[in-house]
Amino acid sequence: MEMCEDVYRACVSCPSHSAELYSCVQQYLITHLYDISEEIVKGNLLKSYYQKWKVYQRGAYCLDHAFYYFNMLCLEKWRIHIFDLYKAQLVCLILAEIESDRNGNFVDPSPVKGAIDSFVYLNPPLSAPLLLYQQAFEAPFLEVTSQYYSKEAALFASERDFTAYMIKALKRIEEEEARVRKFVDLSSYSKVLEECERQWITNQLASFEVEIKNYLRKGDDEALSVLYSLIKRVPPLVEPVSSRMLNYLSEEGLVRGSPGHSDPVTPVDYVDFLFSMRSNYLALCRTAFENNAYFIAAVDKAFRVVINATNGERHLSKSPELLAFYCDAFLKKSSRNPVNYDIDEKLNKMVTLFEYLDEKDVFLKFYSRLLAKRLINSTSSSLEAETQMISSLKQTCGNDYTAKLESMLTDIGTSEKLSVAFRKYLCDHRENTFDNFRIVVLGRASWPIAAQQPFPQPPSVLKQVLLAFEKFYVSQHSGRKLQWLPYLSKCELRMNYLPRRYEVQCSFYQMSILLLFNYKDTVSIEEGALLDNTLATLINAKILAWSGTPAQVVLNKRFSRARGGGKFKLPASIGETENQKDASKATIDAVITDRQISLQATIMRIMKTRRKIAHRQLLSEVASQTSLRFKPAIAMIKKCIESLIDQQYLARAADFTDCYEYIS
Amino acid sequence: MATGNEKPQPLDDSTKNDTKMFSLKKWNAVGMWKWDVECDTCAICRNQVTDCCLKCQAEKVYNQGEKKEECVVVWGECNHTFHHCCMSLWVKQSPKCPLCQQQWSIQRIGK
Fold it and tell me: Which residues form the Cullin family profile domain (chain A) (predicted)?
């Protein structure tokens, strides 16, 4: 080694020898390579190529140390005299070896890897890096890979069911990863895998799209998980596949969850169904889809579709109403669930679902009606829960949304205080009246309470109290006028004429009739003329009976109840369910009126700031401004615009540009 | 609110009304108040007097529910009524009732 260096130095010290040395070494290399070339074909070409290359490379390495400058010469000579000669055969052999490895046979990686490395090494000095390797080997290799796997994948897809196919694909791709590391240059890694994935996954996209629905239907979480681990390898496929899930979920949800599907659905069942559907599929996203954002979004979207699905002639979703009744069910105390232990959980459920609602205004209408009922009848299980519920709604929809609900709660609070103060007032004034009462005074603006029926003459026991209270109230609040709402008033009466002690909970009107019997035995219908329906309820309940003489009623002195305790509740009117349907229809009518007003207000607000605006832009701004409350139908917005034009608040632009102008 | 599982008890004499057929145990009365006014709308802001005035309404929306003083009604000697808020602003410009042009003086303020 040192000798060589000495010789080299001696030669280069004098330039004239340098060229001579170069040509001598070149001559030597050529003869040497001739010998190699003859020997190389004697055995297995790939192996002996690899061995000779190894020795030669080591020689070249020494020579490199000795004369760096000559290194290129060595490689160039090998390229010309060996590589170019055997290139075609070599590549064929390498590809055959790799195919054999793919077929599961054992292949010694060193000669293959070594030969491939030599291709990298032999790259001509002035061309792009890896060019020789890419042209001589990589291109044909990718071609072969594509053919091989396309054949295998097609065969597998036709022979086995899809689950087996997916498992096979996953295994083959993982094997190929290891294989690429073992044999070829790492610069090809991603290209080879891409080819492999294209054959196994991308080309089967249609099957993936079909099968994901089948797996979801069967609830085959494992298969879904395998499916995802394949799909995630090809990021552009995630979206189309997840959108199939969206389709499936919304179809499925609509069929199973639609309120029209299995009428009548109870609010609790409905909410439980929706919530469990959502949380099941989110759990699936977690376990099978690694919480991939596309899949989570698919669940979300599907859910929004299901919950806002419209049916019926009004094109309104039934969900807001059911959700409001669901709230009522868990916020109301009743004999069946005197204490609600899981209010927090239910509240959570409710708020989660609420956020998906498009028609929050419908919900609000129903909710406030039910809240009013709970507060007036003091059937709310806890005011704390009510407050909590309202503040959750406020967080989602803003202050404006809950203002009325809040002032309803406030009214109840002040009424409690007022009742206490009134009792004290009665004591102070030594008014000896009936005193087991609760008086609620509502402010007119916030309560969803309709026009009044006339107040029948109150029984004398109560008349005194009412008058006293009116006097008391005016002394507390100047400038106010009180109006009693008898149809919201409830009483409890004890029936003293029966062997068993019964206490009956009844409406104010029912009480008015019953108290008449304290003074006489028969009551003629004229006396209850205004109260036809009420009388019927009492006869229905067998508390009253027709007497022998026409148009007169008497007490049923043999009244008894077979089941239940001594306390019971009278139905307020006959055909209560019918009433509920009417009420729900009326509520929705009210919502639609409110929407029109709110749309017109929104349009005017926009027009006032913009002065002139294009039709399309106006529509989209209106929709975005109202989106917190509801999703307006385009037809409805148009109708509102028309009506505002009729009222000359706006006009179509004179220049036919499809714009509107504000008229000040 | 019936608990439903109470055993019927024998008649007791604790209430003085027991000689009657029915005796009232409990009563839940519901009333509604409104301002004792002739005209339901405030002539200044055109809102209902039972609602709060236009300005308070807007503030309610934007102030995130911070409650300030309640929006009440005011009666003038002429018996015309307005929101107290609206009238306070009005008298800064003109000391007359906007409806009858009489000198404005407050008769009473709602509470």
Answer: 318-527
Out of A378, A494, A564, closest to residue B25 by CB: A494
Tell me which chain B residue has its CA closest to the CA of residue A408.
Answer: B32
User: What are A647's two structure tokens?
Assistant: 């009222």
Q: Which residues of B touch A503 (CB under 8 A)?
A: 2, 25
State which residue of chain B sits closest to A337, comparing Cα positions: B3
Does A161 lie in the same domain as A31?
yes
Cβ neighbours of A505 in B, within 8 Å: 1-2
For residue A334, is it within any domain?
yes
Q: Which residues of B touch A437 (CB under 8 A)?
A: 26-29
Rg (CA), chain A: 44
CA distances from A472 to A483, B60, B74 (A): 14, 31, 21
Is A483 part of the contact surface with chain B (CB cutoff 8 Å)? yes
Domain boundary among A144, A178, A200: A200
Dist CA A419 CA A439 (whole Å): 6
Q: Report the residue of B24, B38, B52 to disrupt the A interface, i.e. the one with the largest count of A CBs within 10 Å.
A: B24
Phi then psi dihedrals of residue A36, to 5 deg: -55, -45
Query: Is residue A293 a part of any domain in this protein?
Result: no
Both A326 and A353 in one domain: the answer is yes
- Among A399, A288, A414, A431, CA closest to A628: A399
Of A172, A200, A228, which one is at a domain's C-terminal end? A200
* Assessment of whether the complete model's pTM goes beyond 0.90: no
What are the pLDDT tens digits along chain B (111 aa)? 333 333 333 333 334 445 678 888 888 888 888 888 888 888 888 888 877 888 887 776 665 545 556 788 888 888 899 998 889 889 898 888 988 888 888 888 887
Question: Which residues, in sequence order, are CB contacts of A651 under 8 Å at separation 6+?
Answer: A645, A660, A661, A663
| Number of domains comprising chain A | 4
Predicted confidence (pLDDT) per residue in A374-428, tens digit: 888 888 888 888 898 999 898 888 888 888 888 888 889 888 888 888 888 888 8
Contact A438/A419 with Cβ under 8 angstroms? yes
Chain B positions in Cβ-Cβ contact with residue A492 (cut-off 8 Å): 24-27
What residue has token string 């140390």? Answer: A65
- Which of A316, A320, A305 lies closest to A350, judged by CA? A320
The reply to whether A54 falls in a domain is: yes
In this structure, which amino acid lies at residue A233? R
| CATH code at position A160 | 1.20.1310.10
Are residue A59 and residue A182 in the same domain, yes or no? yes
Say if residue A602 is in the same domain as residue A570.
no
Q: What range does the domain containing A602 cover?
A: 583-662
Helix ranges (H only) for A128-188 are: 131-133, 139-159, 162-183
DSSP per residue, A336-379: S-SS-S-HHHHHHHHHHHHTT-S-HHHHHHHHHHHHHHHHHTT-
Give the whole-angstrom CA distance, residue A276 versus residue A298: 16
User: What value, to the nearest 5°, has the Cα angle with vertex A355 and ends A351 and A359?
Assistant: 115
Residue A244 within any structural domain of the chain: no
Task: Report how far residue B40's alpha carbon sits from residue B61's, in angstroms, rounded to the nearest whole number.
Answer: 23
Cβ–Cβ contact A261 with B under 8 A: no
CB contact residues (below 8 A), chain B span 37-96, against chain A = 48, 50-52, 60-61, 63-65, 73, 75
Query: Which stretches of chain A drop beneath a pLDDT of 70?
Result: 1-19, 64-72, 257-264, 311-315, 335-341, 431-433, 450-456, 525-532, 548-550, 564, 573-580
Q: Are residues A519 and A611 in the same domain?
A: no
Nearest CA in chain A to B49: A445
Token representation of residue A236: 């552009």
User: What number is the ipTM of this complex?
Assistant: 0.75
A471 with B101: CB under 8 angstroms?
no
